Amino acid sequence: MADGPQILQSPEEVLSTLGQDGKRKWLYPIESKGRFLIWRRWAGFLLVVLYLALPVVHIGGKPAILLDVVHREFALFGTVFYPTDTLLLMLMLIAVMVAVVLFTALLGRVWCGWACPQTVYLEFVFRPIERLFEGREHVRKRRDEGPWSFDKFWRKALKWGTYAAISLLLANTFVAYFVGWEALLTWMQAPPTENWGFFLVMSITTGLILFDFGIFREQMCTITCPYARMQSIMLDEDSMIVSYDPGRGEPRSKRSKKQLRMEQEGTIPQQGDCIDCFACVRTCPTGIDIRDGLQMECVACTQCIDACDHIMDNIGKPRGLIRYTSERELEGGKTRLLRPRTVVYAAALVFVLSAFSLVLSQRSDFDVNIGRAVGEPYAELGDGRIANRLRFRVRNQTPQPASFSIRTAEGAPLELRPVGALPMTLTGGEMRRIEVWVMAPASAFNGDTMPATFLLEFSDGNTVERTFTLLGPSAR
Ligand code: SF4
Ligand code: SF4
Prior knowledge:
Elements lengths: L34 H19 L4 E2 L2 E2 L1 E4 L4 E4 L2 E3 L4 H22 L2 H5 L2 H18 L2 H9 L4 H30 L1 H9 L6 H21 L2 H6 L1 H4 L1 H4 L6 E4 L1 H4 L7 H9 L13 H4 L20 H13 L6 E4 L1 H4 L9 H22 L4 E7 L6 E2 L4 E12 L5 E7 L6 E5 L4 E3 L4 E11 L7 E10 L4 E9 L5
Antiparallel strand pairs: 1-2, 3-4, 4-5, 6-7, 8-10, 9-10, 10-14, 11-13, 11-15, 12-14, 15-16
This protein binds iron/sulfur cluster (2 copies).
One iron/sulfur cluster binds next to helix 14 and helix 15.
């Protein structure tokens, strides 16, 4: 790493959740009340509501978000994207990636601590349920280490039953993002034997959610998530990270209020502000000690800030021994918001978003493609004309129904004979194909080909023009 903050790993441990014997160290992080917890709770609550509501709320006749992979249709807040919108989808993905890189460079792992579903559901849904049924951390730890009893059994049974119900709801919501709630409700009402696929997907998703939030927990962040591993290339010394201020905290030492008072009075030598109480460690959901420096396991949840602020209030020292700050600021400098990488990332984001808006504004309401129908490329008719059988594929990209008919350009020596009824009606978002015989006099061909222009006239007043090359005798 060239200039970013150094990301450390505890010297005596491979992982904070792994003991010396290689076994999982089960964590009992204590919830630390404070201003950051309140703000994060609100953010988490809004995100949970949003997550549950987005597939239910309809905008323009479609769910606010629908990622219908099977029908290759993606609805995002009233705009429906089809496979023909590959460029738009690509630009959107690039914009999301650039935004993640930019926000990480500016604000560190703010996503992890404030918005990632792993953190939001674990901290604000699953852990509160655990506390409700099994009590606070020290009580839970003691009970877990003790033998099985009826008390332990019913508490765990209720906890896991509630976990399972919530996991089922989350799994249904997750699947609804891909198929929509209407389809989901229809499948739910049918017996599992009629919908094995759905039943299997739902069971696996519920099981995975249950496993993740009930057992796997912080290991998702510390072992599985690739984002944590990319920190070193995304952060620099001006990125805002949750940090302990060693300049203020060291030399740390445990001392009583009386000793602290004597320090203030100057009767004993002054120590650092850290009283080595371990409140920041006991609250950490990934089990690390922030005082060891920035570590890969830190999900920037700010719990250590709240814990330490509370201690500072108690001992009469200013808050912020652990705080959001940059490495440059810790070294006495001033955090720079504008720096080469943030300027480049921001410019790239503006560029990609502008390109997205431009492509979106030029997107036609109707997508028309012409191809050759299967079979012989053309037929020679007895009256001296050549017939080409073409296939028109038309998609209505608006939410409203529309009908269309096909004609040729004014004065063109062409006759059209559709194989099917025209005008044809398309519902919002629907794609249909129609085959059309196109007859042209052999004399109109220049060698073996002839360009033909078709006009598709839609009921909403739109006209789409397409040119296609007809084939004649010597093309065989
Ligand atoms: S909570 Fe604050 S005072 Fe206590 S050990 Fe952590 S940094 Fe030191
Ligand atoms: S070190 Fe602090 S911010 Fe990082 S995960 Fe632990 S408690 Fe959260």
